[in-house]
Amino acid sequence: MLRIIFSIVFCISTFAQTNPLKSDLNRKLFADYLYCEQDYLRAAEEYESLAKTFVSDTILYKIGKSYSIIGDYSKAINSFNLIPDSSEMFFNSKLEQAKIFYLTSEKDLLVNLLASNNFSSPELKKLLIAFYLKMNQLDSISNDLFQLSDEDVFTFKNFYERRKNPPYKSEALAGILSSIVPGAGKIYTKEYGDGITAFILTGMFSYLAYNNFKHARNFRAYLFSGLAAGFYLGNIYGSVASAQIFNAKIDFNFLKELSDYLSNKNYFINEIEFCK
After folding, report:
1. pLDDT digits over 174-219, tens only?
2. Closest-CA residue to 160 (of 129, 195, 200)
3. pLDDT tens track for 91-132
4. Average pLDDT over residues 1-10
5. What is d(CA 125, CA 247) in angstroms, rounded to the nearest whole number?
6. Do residues 75 and 100 touch, judged by C-beta distance below 8 A?
7. pTM score, whole prediction
8. Contacts of 154 (CB under 8 A, 6+ apart)
9. With 50 as the cut, is the pLDDT of residue 144 above it?
10. Which of 51-55, 77-81, 137-141, 142-146 has the lowest mean pLDDT?
11. Angle at 256 between CA 263 and CA 129, to 5 degrees
12. 213 CB contacts (<8 Å, ≥6 apart)?
């Protein structure tokens, strides 16, 4: 009799441990814990290991979000695409896809998403404007994209004007200025220290060359003449390069400010709180 009781207890215990529902439930709880601890790769893998009957739209969204955060955009898109348009997660899933298309410069996919019959929003329009600003495709920013009624429009208009009329320095003018007055091109590009140094060194070697020619010290005269010519030509080349660097910094700072703005706005996505 005792043996029979032990056998029954053993069978019940074994069944409880192998019960798929209990296993999936524990796995989901563990995946939720990993997600909230920002261990997104393991969280996504745990969610994906759940039985299909246990997977919900929320879990699909978390899988997509996890892969998006770690930069595995292909898997993120696949997961977001499984969320039906009847789901509460649908709107955010589309915005998450739009964010990925923006980051990966997939213009056609971003445009197609905006043009889709079942999804269109001011948030998506803002991302499309940001994309055209990022790629410097200002002709693609049609007036209807600016027909938005919130404070973001003013920020985008500011970005638009800066992108349309950037405060670039002319490379040709920088070179011409330095050819007239050594160092002037560097000062024009706001490299004041380099400009003053170029002016002093070129002037100093030119004077030494002149002085040695005047006193018939030909070797020194030619030596200083060579140094003066080298500094003079180098100062012209350096001024042109300085203008190029100045313009590159303008573009870099613009893109950084645009990126920071979108990041601070969370790409216009209202984050769903899963970890309260």
Report:
1. 999 999 999 999 999 999 998 898 889 888 888 888 888 878 788 8
2. 129
3. 999 999 999 999 999 988 888 887 775 556 888 888 889 999
4. 44
5. 29
6. no
7. 0.79
8. none
9. yes
10. 142-146
11. 65
12. 221, 225
Residue with tokens 């030619």: 222
* Token pair for 236: 């012209």
Structure tokens of 175?
Answer: 């070179």
Q: Which two tokens stand for residue 169?
A: 């320095």
Give the separation between CA 215 and CA 88, rounded to whole angstroms: 91
Phi, psi torsion values for 221, nearest 5 degrees = -65, -45
What single DSSP character describes residue 108? H
Structure tokens at 191: 């490299």
Both structure tokens of 114: 């905006």
Alpha-carbon gap, residue 231 to 220, rounded angstroms: 16
73 contact partners, CB below 8 Å, separation of at least 6: 67, 100, 103, 104
DSSP 112-153: HHHH-TT---HHHHHHHHHHHHHTT-GGG--GGGG---STHH
